[in-house]
Request: fold
Amino acid sequence: MKARRITLAVALSLSATPAFAATEAAVPTNTQEWVNYLSDFTRNAEMLADPKKFVAALAVVTEPEFLLAATRSLMDPNLYLQSTQSLMDPRAYANFARPMDPMAMAAWTRALMDPQFLAAVQTVLTDPNKLMRWVMAPMDPRALALVLNAVNPNVYLRWLTAPLDPRVAGMATAPLNPNWYGAWGGTVANPQSYGPTVNTLMRAPMAAPAASQGAPQMPVVPLFDPRMFGLPMAPVAPSR
Reply:
């Protein structure tokens, strides 16, 4: 079974789990896309907030095919340029801010208590067919091609010409641009950069000022909201 089939099988096995009903996010479809995804600092932390995506990533990175694709990409300076460029992108802040939300922690708590999630992880790690693929990996022609590619002069020529790439100049001059700092500040202040709980707190409604005292408006911050922990809200009859 190929890595793509394992990923799809795991994703389908978890799709019926209530704990993952609200996290239907698209995952990469092949090994090379997973390499690009994990090196992209504007997206790679999604698997820390979504247990289903974490299992899908675990199914791929434990395959010898992923090791071959990652090694081939690491020999190309283009991967480092793209990864560094994404690290300097203001969206990288939101990428790591969302998994810190209490809702993500609650999702992981539910997942760790879900027998189906634990069974999926165990299946990924103890698949006998995967162990056999690792045993046969040294005889894969692609592994021999990587060894021969290490002595290819064109590989080292690409590394020598990498500093001349326009993206290098763009990253070097980005800290000199005031708009770059403004973009980072806007991302930090944007409620959409955070998870549901922090987003709700930053969008807290303003209390009405007292008519007699003319008190200034202050944000009303809910000290306990059941929705922060994935608990349902009980319907309340409107007051008359």
User: Anything to note?
Assistant: The chain has 15 helices and no strands. The first helix runs from residue 3 to 14. The radius of gyration is 24 Å.
